[in-house]
Design goal:
Among the domains are: 11-128, Up-down Bundle (Glutathione S-transferase Yfyf (Class Pi), Chain A, domain 2), CATH 1.20.1050.40; 163-219, no CATH class; 328-460 and 467-475, Collagenase (Catalytic Domain). It has helices at 11-28, 38-65, 69-90, 93-102, 109-124, 131-161, 176-182, 194-203, 207-218, 234-250, 256-261, 269-298, 307-319, 323-326, 332-347, 427-444, 466-472, 478-484, 496-504, 510-527, 534-545, 561-564, 574-591, 598-608, 616-624, 630-636; strands at residues 163-166, 183-184, 187-191, 350-354, 364-370, 373-383, 393-398, 407-414. By secondary structure, it is of the alpha+beta class. Strands 4-5-6-8-7 form a 5-stranded mixed sheet. A 3-stranded antiparallel sheet has the order 1-3-2. It starts with 10 loop residues before the first helix and ends in a 5-residue tail after the last helix. A hairpin with a 2-residue loop joins strand 5 (364-370) and strand 6 (373-383).
């Protein structure tokens, strides 16, 4: 497979575009009037960004979902080119001056916001740096792009490296559904792909097997455990953190956390820490009670590989059902149809599959349409497989531009069809699917005519999770469950009794879950505020958040791709920050008519349609009438302290 390169996009094209934009401004800079306007400055950059984005986004996507050494070697060659492109744009003083002059032209509200944000972006991209400092800034950006790719590659290859064949008898506790996922002609093959790993941790009665798989998973891409030392990410992580710190200092910040939050809604890293500390303080007592309850139920000292297993057993006892009771009611076709119906009820948007040849047989192409016709597409890659990056995400192939409709990639690692059965989804997997479609709707439902701020472009990082987390809440609506469910044999919708049990168990161990997410977020912001060893930082954070010790082989950070292979550095708090907004928004919609109501339509109009073209928190207040409060999240999570 060849890396996609466009013969029409040449390095000189960027130079010609910039020269065309800036030459007019240079000629008239000292005159009473000037020739800069939106059309001559912003539109040419939107055009070139759209063309380049079509090339880079598909290559990045394929490297994540169809990894091969050959492809990655070619992809790696493009990273310095892309990094240098953005460096050239971000540090071009003539372009910066052109945007500054735009402030004195006639602009509408969206254009004014975009220009303001663009000027800040120039300043955070090192436009004020000169000489050696400017060169060093660009070199750091290039090196970081290569290190991020190496980190993700090491995680993927380390994950793929481990397999274990066991007998059916060794998988005591598995139902027929879980066995079907791992059954081969030679026995049952276990691996570290998320669906398989979670099944072992949740259902395997063999404590020694759970321990073995847990140790292999938690030590991926490290110097211990099963991992080949060539995949050890510790040095990569240290280099990334060192370079981020140097980058921030070049721009006059004391640390990378200060640089990271500058374009976000929060005012400082200290505000992030205070926010997370409050969540910890208000949820810790409940988390302690939940762990004590689990300890008593298990009747033994708990190890990390016991938590999911005994939690599932306790959940079954408390609520009268087990996870495998639900999966037969959620075959893939029914779930997708229900998801599409929910989106149509919420926003009047139709979604239908279209026949297209794609990069893998499992991939679906979906077309979104409204009364006016097609408005965009989603390329859906649902199942876990080897050589596909773990986790779930949405990324954009292209935004709206002239005759081009927005297109999004939605990627998950969910259960796949087995032995003549359709893919039967866990309820947590359905929530994940709703989450990622929330992101995709944010991208596709945009009404912004300017690509640089349409869809997810220009949205502050601590607001980008709002549409996705907002969508998750609808998974617990009876109307939605009826659309999603249909037993794979009988077509029967989920019985009322099981639905009530799902709702009753929604916040099971929510205190423990809150502590866990706050631990990750606090470590993230603190490790980007100091030069201390990142595992030492984690140890310090765990003194506040931890309720049980970790094993010596724990190298979780070595595979924390959100921070070292994605865009969440010093921004992982965004999940909880946006969840405050999402809980508040959902509660407001439900209290004012719910699905299909005018208020639901206002969420689309105020949040989804405006993208990054207006101040995000002001748009939220326009929708809601006031700023959200942390109490809404705690109530939605069932945390009563």
């Amino acid at each position: 497979m060849n890396v996609n390169r466009s013969p029409d996009f040449q390095p000189t094209k960027l130079e010609k575009t910039i020269n065309k934009i800036t030459s007019k401004g240079l000629l008239v800079a000292n005159s009473a009037s000037h020739g800069d306007d939106w059309t001559s400055v912003v539109e040419p950059l939107d055009k070139i960004e759209h063309e380049l984005g079509q090339q880079t986004s598909v290559n990045s996507h394929l490297n994540s979902v169809m990894f091969s050494e050959e492809f990655n070697a070619e992809y790696k060659k493009t990273l310095p080119l892309i990094s240098n492109y953005y460096s050239e744009i971000g540090t071009n003083k003539s372009l910066y001056n052109a945007f500054q002059r735009l402030q004195n032209t006639e602009l509408n509200a969206q254009q004014t916001h975009i220009v303001k944000e663009s000027i800040q972006s120039f300043e955070l991209s090192g436009v004020a740096l000169e000489g050696e400092e400017s060169d060093r800034f660009k070199a750091i950006q290039e090196e970081l792009s290569l290190l991020s790719n190496q980190f993700s590659k090491n995680v993927l290859q380390s994950t793929n490296e481990w397999e274990k064949t066991v007998t059916v008898e060794q998988l005591s506790g598995y139902s027929e559904s879980e066995l079907a996922k791992v059954m081969t002609s030679d026995g049952c093959c276990l691996n570290l792909q998320i669906p398989v790993y979670i099944d072992v941790m949740t259902y395997a009665d063999s404590r020694s097997l759970r321990e073995e798989v847990y140790r292999a998973y938690i030590s991926r891409a490290s110097d211990v455990g099963h991992t080949s030392k060539e995949f050890d990410n510790r040095g990569v992580m240290n280099d990334i953190l060192r370079l981020r710190s140097e980058l921030a200092e070049l721009l006059g910040f004391r640390n990378y956390a200060e640089l990271s939050v500058e374009p976000k809604m929060v005012n400082s890293p200290a505000e992030v820490v205070d926010f997370l500390d409050e969540l910890v303080a208000r949820s810790k007592a409940q988390a302690i009670s939940e762990l004590e309850e689990l300890q008593i139920f298990a009747g033994q000292e708990l190890a990390p590989w016991d938590l999911m297993y005994y939690s599932e057993k306790l959940k079954q006892q408390k609520f009268g059902y087990k996870r495998s009771d639900l999966t037969p009611y959620f075959p893939e076709e029914s779930v997708l149809n229900g998801l599409f119906s929910t989106i149509e009820m919420l926003y009047g948007i139709g979604i239908s599959p279209v026949s297209e040849t794609t990069y893998h047989d499992d991939v679906k192409v979906l077309e979104l349409s409204d009364a006016s016709g097609a408005i965009g597409r989603i390329i859906l890659d649902t199942y876990a497989r080897e050589n596909k990056r773990g986790g779930a995400w949405m990324s954009d192939y292209q935004g709206p531009y002239k005759d081009c409709l927005p297109v999004a990639f939605v990627v998950c690692n969910l259960n796949s069809p087995t032995d003549g059965k359709p893919a039967l989804f866990e309820f947590d997997e359905i929530v994940t699917l709703f989450h990622e479609f929330g992101h995709a709707l944010h991208h596709i439902l945009t009404k912004v005519p300017f690509p640089c701020a349409a869809g997810i472009n220009g949205v502050p990082w601590d607001g980008v999770e709002l549409p996705s987390q907002y969508m998750e809440f609808y998974c617990y609506e009876k109307e939605v469950i009826n659309c999603l469910s249909g037993h794979w044999k009988t077509g029967e919708t989920l019985p009322e009794e099981l639905f009530e049990k799902i709702v009753a168990s929604k916040n099971f161990q929510s205190g423990l879950q809150m502590l866990r997410q706050c631990e990750f977020a606090l470590w993230d912001v603190h490790t980007h505020m100091t030069d201390n060893d990142t595992y030492d930082v984690l140890s310090d954070v765990r003194e506040k958040t931890s309720l049980m010790p970790i094993i010596d082989e724990n190298r979780f950070l070595n595979s924390f791709s959100h921070i070292f292979g994605g865009g969440y550095a010093a921004g992982y708090y965004s999940y909880k920050w946006a969840e405050v907004l999402a809980a508040d928004a959902y509660d407001y919609v439900i209290q004012n008519g719910g699905i299909g109501s005018k208020v639901a339509e206002q969420f689309r109009e105020c949040i989804l349609e405006v993208g990054g073209s207006l101040d995000f928190i002001q748009q939220y207040k326009k929708f809601r009438g006031k700023k959200p409060e942390i109490d809404g999240l705690l109530r939605a999570s069932g945390i009563t302290q």
